[in-house]
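User: tokens in, sequence out, please.
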């Protein structure tokens, strides 16, 4: 992290000034030495160093930026937020490889921004059960094979929040990249998940509390999602959407891109199928596909002790229903009752008990399936 209050103040102010990008800052720092010395130079000196004539850096612009930086520093101190200038050692190293990486980032949480392995998982906000089930199975298997993996997404509706929740459920670190300052959360209904992520991962943004929440921010933040990971996986996307933007950014950053294929003509899979068709993304159907493509060696899996029966700790009636569901994949309750040759009331009571034990899952329409 930056050392010195004044140095941090200058870094934040610099990041808030229009017309300033990383190449320009690197050039200014090369000539001036450090941030405090840089702000000691006159606006005319800045323009001369950068070789421009436009009055972008006048005294009023500087003072406004410094005042905003003062307000942000008070918030940072109060909320325990880690500010990261692009020269800091804790700044995401993968993101730093991208030419449009933000000058400043703000992070709250306990996870690492430079984990051994990281992937971003993005997709439609109108996720189907197909996409959600794939996320659940993928992250369950990845957690077993690569427990040091970090999952990055945007805390949005649909696939994003599913990826965050499944990562946390399986003990994986997850980082939500926000399109606004850390004083709020959009959408607010994901606040509990965001709070849980602080304990195993965190929240990251380039925006201060004083900056307006604009629609364009949600597109701009996608470059952070794509840039700070080893690969990007798109799980369901229509023909247009933010997930496809993230995928194209990842490709531009020379990152691996993967997509889950779907039925032809299915709107929520049209974008994924096009990514695969156009050779922008590799087709993926399982955690093993991902591990093989990235050449990640899975962790040594512990041998499971042999079980005396397929479903230990269950009654005879419960085992009968579990076996039927396992054979069929999923069944409607009326059909299950007939197949099990049990009274309807007994079938319903047995299924309820199996739900309490976490062995079956109820679906809309009276369907049931086993939980692996």
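Assistant: Sequence out:
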């Amino acid at each position: 992290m930056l050392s010195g209050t004044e140095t941090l103040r200058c870094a934040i102010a610099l990041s808030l000034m229009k017309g300033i990008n990383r190449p320009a800052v690197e050039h200014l720092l090369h000539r001036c030495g450090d941030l405090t010395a840089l702000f000691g130079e006159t606006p005319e000196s800045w323009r001369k160093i950068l070789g421009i004539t436009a009055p972008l850096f006048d005294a009023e612009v500087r003072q406004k930026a410094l005042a905003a930086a003062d307000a942000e520093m008070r918030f940072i101190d109060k909320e325990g937020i880690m500010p990261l200038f692009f020269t800091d050692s804790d700044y995401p190293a993968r993101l730093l490889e991208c030419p449009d990486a933000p000058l400043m980032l703000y992070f709250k949480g306990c996870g690492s921004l430079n984990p051994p392995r990281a992937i971003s998982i993005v997709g439609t906000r109108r996720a189907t059960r197909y996409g959600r089930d794939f996320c659940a199975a993928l992250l369950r298997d990845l957690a077993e094979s690569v427990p040091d993996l970090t999952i990055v997404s945007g805390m949005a509706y649909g696939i994003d929040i599913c990826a965050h929740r499944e990562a946390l459920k399986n003990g994986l670190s997850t980082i939500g990249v926000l399109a606004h300052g850390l004083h709020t959360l959009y959408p607010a209904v994901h606040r509990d998940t965001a709070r849980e992520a602080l304990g195993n991962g965190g929240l990251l943004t380039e925006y201060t509390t004083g900056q307006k929440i604009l629609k364009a921010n949600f597109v701009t933040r996608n470059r952070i999602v794509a840039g700070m990971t080893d690969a990007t996986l798109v799980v369901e996307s229509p023909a247009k959407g933010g997930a496809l933007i993230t995928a194209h950014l990842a490709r531009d950053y020379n990152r691996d891109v993967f997509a889950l294929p779907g039925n032809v003509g299915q709107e929520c899979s049209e974008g994924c199928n096009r990514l695969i068709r156009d050779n922008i993304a590799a087709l993926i159907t399982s955690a093993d596909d991902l591990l093989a493509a990235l050449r990640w060696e899975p962790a040594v899996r512990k041998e499971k002790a042999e079980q005396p029966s397929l479903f230990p700790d269950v009654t005879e009636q419960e085992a009968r229903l579990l076996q039927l569901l396992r054979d069929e994949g999923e069944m409607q309750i009326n059909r299950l009752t007939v197949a099990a040759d049990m009274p309807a009331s007994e079938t319903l009571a047995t299924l309820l008990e199996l739900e309490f034990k976490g062995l079956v899952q109820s679906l809309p329409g009276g369907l049931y399936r086993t939980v692996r």
